[in-house]
Design goal:
single chain, about 290 residues, alpha/beta, Rossmann fold, Threonyl-tRNA Synthetase, Chain A, domain 2, 2 domains, 13 strands, about 40% helix, about 20% strand, globular, binds magnesium ion
């Protein structure tokens, strides 16, 4: 069965960059979920953060955490559990990245040369995390609970940051620039995780599922480029990312959650029209076939 599946970034896309609220996306999200269209968060946030958020938003399906280093799927959602995946609290977890301990081990080798120029989120006090992110204490602790990536606050110059990214790449690590942090991972990525999950959804649930990706920043480029439909949500704080030659790209006029609502409504309408058109064509073809027979 054909079904749209929405893969969405959270901060700055579905959620407001400053308040972390749904804003004007709320009613559209409710309508989308009521139609049975899966909304799958793909985010730099942790499992602890996203699971709680999903409960609040009544999103009951899978989610992708830590910039695509791990995928969490409810065991009752209808996807077969891959061998070797861990289970916890009614979910199974497919891990694409290496552990945070492995990443920290490699980063320790850079600490001398780049001393004083980055501060790992997990090394900060809860109070420091609150100050940097604007989160409350409980949310800050959940943000620190990383398993397959390390988030770094960059304190040096922009030129130094380029050198640091290069040095980490030489160690085989990936650096993704998020809204507030540099995220370091060793395997996975938002696009890689989305492709893996979407293939599984096509195989186990909806044979011709249509993927829609929504994002507001450069760390969403890989995600946007991997999807059938791409929604770039405008940001109040930076330029929109520019997916390369995407055939079905929509850039919102509005910013943040309001732009998410605008863009998702537009894309779902396009998909509904295409489906309607397809039905019309097949009915007409059927009619001609009946006449000629
Ligand atoms: Mg974002």
């Amino acid at each position: 069965m054909s079904c749209p599946v929405i893969y969405t970034d959270l901060d700055g896309t579905l959620l407001d960059h400053d308040t972390y609220g749904l804003d004007r996306a709320g009613p559209v999200l409710q309508a989308i979920l009521a139609r049975g269209i899966p909304v799958i968060p793909v985010t730099s946030k942790t499992q602890a953060e996203v699971q709680l958020l999903c409960q609040g938003l009544e999103i009951n399906g899978p989610f992708v955490v830590e910039n695509g280093a791990a995928i969490w799927v409810p065991q009752t959602w209808g996807l077969s559990r891959p061998t070797g995946s861990a289970t916890a609290a009614g979910y199974w977890c497919h891990v694409l990245g290496k552990s945070r301990g492995y990443i920290r081990g490699l980063l320790a080798g850079l600490a001398g040369e780049w001393s004083g120029r980055f501060h790992a989120l997990s090394d900060m006090s809860v109070r420091q995390v609150c100050a940097v992110t604007g989160l409350d204490e409980f949310s800050a602790r959940r943000a620190q609970a990383r398993h397959y990536s390390e988030a770094l606050l960059w304190l040096g110059s922009a030129t130094d940051r380029m050198g640091f990214v290069q040095a980490t790449a030489e160690l085989g690590l990936q650096v993704v620039e998020g809204g507030r942090f540099l995220h370091v991972l060793a395997g996975g990525g938002k696009g890689t995780a989305m492709r893996w999950l979407h293939q599984k959804i096509c195989r186990d649930l909806y044979a011709d599922a249509i993927s829609i990706a929504a994002g507001d920043a450069n760390n969403d480029l890989e995600l946007l480029e991997a999807a059938d439909h791409a929604l770039v949500v405008r940001s109040p704080v930076h330029e929109p990312p520019k997916p390369h030659n995407h055939p079905k790209l929509y850039i919102s006029r509005l910013e943040g959650p309001a732009g998410w609502a605008e863009g998702i409504q537009h894309i779902i309408k396009v998909i509904d029209q295409e489906k309607g058109h397809g039905r019309f064509l097949s009915e007409r073809q059927h009619h001609y076939a009946a006449q000629s027979g």
